[in-house]
Amino acid sequence: MPGDGDEITRVTRSKDVARVSYDKLSKWYDLIAGSSERKFRDVGLDKLGVGVGERVLEIGFGTGHSLVALAQRVGTSGKVYGIDLSEGMFQLAEARVRAAGLSTRVELARGDATRLPYETDFFDAVLMSFVLELFDTPELSIVLRECRRVLRRHGRTSVVALSKKKGLAVTLYEWAHAQFPSTVDCRPIFVKRTLEGAGFQVVDSTEMSMWGLPVDVVVARKALS
Q: 58, 30 in Cβ contact below 8 A?
């Protein structure tokens, strides 16, 4: 079984399969995964340190909880943008933002993070929570390079992700991912190493655990070339 090597496993399901899967899952996502992911997502939000007047992007916004929190933090002078592959997630997130009375502070898009539809040097901060590990290995650097492109000078990102470390839980999870790639559709990655390889400088890292699986919350700044 995979799990103890120095390589991360591949993501073999297609983007179309992922889109359909999350469209179907969207109505049940908070019930299935929302409560278990919330505390990690909140740590990532807090460590990003978003302030009034900032322009922030969330990649893979899911059902929209973080969008609401970010919109509250940027105030009326800031703006929150979000991009997600799933139409079902888009609809739920849009409804949640509207119910919170924050629609004027949030702009949502459907799309692929390997091709972000935003200008260069546009954002102060980028948030990804349990999203980066959904991308296949060759796409990790592409997504982070796009993040680096759209971030302003000294802009920062907060990444919450399953972390590749030795242990039985990771070995079993990677086995399940290999056997059921469309259901267990993500896998642990080397979070800090991947960020640094894409031109980011890690400034803060917190190790956590979810059901025995290691989770890293990493904040990194756009390194100047």
A: no
8 found inside a domain: no
Q: Are 164 and 186 in contact (CB under 8 A)?
A: no
Instruction: Return the DSSP state at 32.
Output: I
Report phi then psi at 27, rounded to 5: -70, -20
Give the domain CATH number at 29: 3.40.50.150
For strand 213-222 and strand 151-162, is the pairing parallel, antiparallel, or unpaired? Answer: antiparallel
7, part of any domain: no
User: Which position has the token pair 């979810």?
Assistant: 210
Do the domain assignments include residue 155? yes
Quote the pTM value. 0.94
Whether residue 202 contacts residue 147, with contact meaning beta carbons closer than 8 Å, is answered with no
Which residue is it, tokens 């790639």? 181
∠ CA 202-207-211 to the nearest 5 degrees?
145
Residue 109 is encoded by which pair of tokens? Answer: 């898009």
Residue 49's identity, in one-letter code, is G
The number of domains in the chain is 1
All residues at 6 or more sequence positions from 138 whose CB lies less than 8 Å from its CB, including other chains: none
Both tokens assigned to 154: 């000294």
Using the 8-state DSSP alphabet, how is residue 28 labeled? G
> pLDDT tens digits, residue range 81-114?
999 999 999 999 999 999 999 999 999 999 999 9
Look up tokens 């079993």; give the residue. 172
Q: What is the domain range of residue 21? A: 15-222
